[in-house]
Amino acid sequence: MAARSKLGRWKRERWKKESNVSNSTPSTRSEGSGTIHEISGVRNSEKTQLFIRHSRYSKPTRNLLQSREAKMSSEDTNDSEEQRKRLRKSRKLGLCQKLSIPDRASYLEGQTPFQRAKNFDDSYFEKLNLLNWNEKQAENQNIKDTVTDDNLNQSEEDEQSEAEVLSSIEVEPTLNDKQRAALYCELLYTVIHQLGARGKTSSLTPGDLFVYAQEALKISEETHRMLYAKTKEREPPTCIIKVEVVEARHLEAKDADGLSDPYCMLGLITDEKEEEKIKNIRAHRRKSKSTIREVLDGESMHVTTVKENTLNPVWNETFMMDCDDKALLKEEDRKLSKIRGISGMGRFFKDVMQSARKSGEGGNTDDFLGYIEIPIKEIPAAGIDEWFKLKGRSSKSHVDGHCHLKITLTTGKKPDIPYEIKHLYPTTLDIHGALLREFIHYDCENYQDTDSKRNSTELCPQAEFILHQHALQNELNDLQQVSIRWMLFSHHHWLEPMKYSSLNVLVSTLKKEWKTGALSQREEHSLVKSLKIFTDNCWRLLIKYRDVFPATDKGKLSRLINLLECLSNLYKLEVFKNSIKEPLNVQMSNLLKESALAWYKKVYAWKEPQTKNEEAMLSAMVDVAESLVTDMFQAKACYRKIFAVPNHVYALDDYHGWFKQSVLRWLDIAQVKAKERIKRAVEIDKILRIDASVSHSTSAIDGVGCFYQIREFWKKLAWPDPSGSYVFVMHITNQICSSGSYYADLLFDKMIKNNYYDKDPSQFDVSEQLCVTLNNIEYMRLWLSKLPEKLGWEDVINALITAHGERGGRHARSALENMLCSADDDMLNKVADAIEHIGHRMGVDIKRFVFQLCCAPEDTPAEEVVVPLLKYLDDDLMVLNTSVVKSVFHRILHFIWEIVIENFSNGIKANGGRTASFYQRQCEALEIVQSFFYADGVGVPLERLQLGNYKILVETLALRKMSTTELIQHYFAERCGEQETAEEKYGAVTFKAFYDFNNQKLQVEVLNAKNLPPLDTNGLCDPYVTVELLPEDFYGKEMKKTEIIKNTLFPLFDEQFDFDVEPELLRETGSCLHLTVMDYDVFSNDDIAGHVYFNLNNVCGLREVVEGGFSNVPQQTRNIFHPKPGGRYFEVLESRDDEKAQRFAKAEIDLRERTISAHA
Hints:
Keywords: Cytoplasm, Endosome, Exocytosis. It is built from 39 helices and 18 strands. It is α+β, with helices and mostly antiparallel strands. Among the domains are: 169-236 and 415-475; 238-269 and 299-326 and 370-412, Sandwich (Immunoglobulin-like); 595-650, no CATH class; 656-834, Tetracycline Repressor, domain 2 (Orthogonal Bundle); 856-960, Methane Monooxygenase Hydroxylase, Chain G, domain 1, CATH 1.20.58; 964-1158, Immunoglobulin-like.
């Protein structure tokens, strides 16, 4: 037994592993000229074992199986062979067994799908797809792949190209000696009086700057000394500090309301008085009697406005302060390296955020909020724009907040430029431009000497420092600087081309800095003229874009992209708008047309043959055509993306539209051909498996192969318009879906015609043809389910959404899905019909076995009575499991499960009066059968097993397997539930109920009743109330009653009753207090006015302690009602045969009749 048990477990584990490889999983097999997806199955020889062995069961079921195995342990090792003989005897396996091995071999020998296709229609579809119709398209695709780069915009821009040099650009004349001397004097003045800290250029000494200037301007050492001495005699400029107090944040609250009224006080402290004033300020901080205003000079003090009630004030106020001190500017040392300028000053700039001034009224002193000290020598030439943290009076002081300051340096009113300079360069901008021009030429010469090329608009550090100082000292704004830089670099570009990305940076800066009026009329005119020259030169270059920027060179293409971006940004400049005659897209479109015409004329002239015979002319025509095709594909794959001309359509863009009707016509023919092939394939198909590893027959392969060829045709067609391809995709989808339904109809008709349905009423037999038919239909259905992916539905739908909006996309998706769903439903209906036939044929035997199960003696365990049913299901399902694919087998399992549930339900209905033990056994038997169908997770999922009729059956069994006492309990629980929704039709009763836990007594006080029905002839009644606890099994028949109150419909009782009750009984389901309102009659039985039921599960005092005891228990008022015996629990009690149930049901019915008769 142990060995056999191991064998069973090994088989189960192997089956589980094999079942994980779904019978419906697509696997690649050769079909036609391509590959298709087919449904592969597990080899039958490895799946031939009892289906029942694939499950894990409950403990009773396992005991049953172990007992069965114990009985079989005495059999010899040929048990499996005997089992197969038994199955063959009781179940036919179909025509497959009747064919000899040679017959089966001849059925498939030499008949590949391609050979069968040749016999069907001379390989109509296969021959079409074998044509080399895309040879030229493949060649063009290679061109496209060469020039297409998704990261083209990120490609590195090439160095300058000789092809971009324009010979028409004039080289500016060199400077004469006077001009060089004038420029050098101005440069010396700028370097001598440089402003601000050196910062990043701290390594550059004045000597370094002079050396660079001498080389750039070609100044000799002797000339330098003469000009330097002359420049030193010029009046120095005045240093001005411009301070903008922007805002502050997170200041300290000084007022009682948690806010402050902040302002700023600004001042300068010179070196001469630095120590003295610092001491005074510090003394002021220690003594509040004096103020900063008293310490600082009045002229050097500046105060912002006061911002009331805020801790985050915003000022945006600007102050100009003269920090000139000639004593500090004296020349202490003649050495050039000792010249310091303003950076040598020892003054300190103070921004004091405090209230250190005295108020005009009462001499009150404002509160101190913090201060900032900034040494002037640390202010860089570029200025400061940052947040400063406020400081306290001392290191022990605590201050909060930050202040945002912007500080810049300038020279204020500069002394007049000497006449010998001014008559050569009238304005400072002319001098700046001349310096920049010379620096550009000098830097370019240096780059040429080092065999490298200039690609940036940035100059060397010495040049940039000199230019920045000159602009700073002469108050040239940012727009003036970038304008002159653009004019000179853009002109120099056509002599020595640089990177367009650098020029684009200048254009972007121009756009950013542009302010109307920031340039003089002369300066603006010069800028516009420079922009116009640059754009004209760009158009001249773009005419030759095929030669200058070839499509095969990504670096050159990157230059073209940056050139076009620069041109586009230039056209957006405000200053250039009035100079634009036509929009950029119009000019670009005209240029491309002109360029194409010029290129074609050149190619035509080049290809024109010397001799004019037909062969030479034809060859030349082919060469021109090939050049045109190549250029067209380069344009579409590369240049079209780069130029991005709006609304531009190439002449051949819609060439595919010429073939639309032809393609549709071919698809119509293909549908006819496909159905003819499918019909022929079904006719010759013997509905047998191709081999042991494949579950379907040849017709399924032939049908799917036909659809595969149609799909391949569409794939090779490569329709270029995604949204326009919708009509073809819809046509192909409809064609394949309708052909799939047609195949299912033919196959199903053949199955009926050849009697693959076994109609022998004596027993149910599973034929192989029936199983293969189901597998064929399922194979076709699963292949069709892949159509959305195979035909690219999502790409088409997304294109439609782009072209026609969401509504158009939803309509297209709905139309396609409806076609697919319709075909899927047709095939599923065919499969369902066959499964229903199998189920109904099996249902006859299942009904018999369930009937036997119900009729078995009640003392027989469920594990034994269920054996015949499981053995029958095991035998039949084993055959089906080895014959159909997994998806079909699961549908069969589910359908048979529904039949089992239906028969179980019918058995319960037919045995309605049986005892609780009978229903308990039925419940256990159902659990065992459910485990059989669940099969340890490889059968029907539990969530599907436990749906629909199963739920109703389980609820019915759970109800009927209850004991009579449990049913009575639930019956009274239902009564309590009805009480909560009862209307006040027959009056109401008010009472109190309390459980004294210490004495284990239930105390009930009946207080009163109201609106009782008049049951006496005088329109009144003589009411009293009976009190009892239910059910009687728990509390017995103890009944107590109140006094009778004569002639009233609103009696007042105020009577208390005590019941000795254990707390556990009160917690039982259905435990309730029953109050019956009676009408006393002298000469007849007392009438019943109605009933009140009160649930005792949560009576006061049972689960919690009530302070004050019974006296503090709230009153309960319940409506009197007339309960009608009924409900699911009463129905079971009424149908049950035992005496207790019958007695209870009769008593409830009598009570109801007595109650109703009193009100008749």
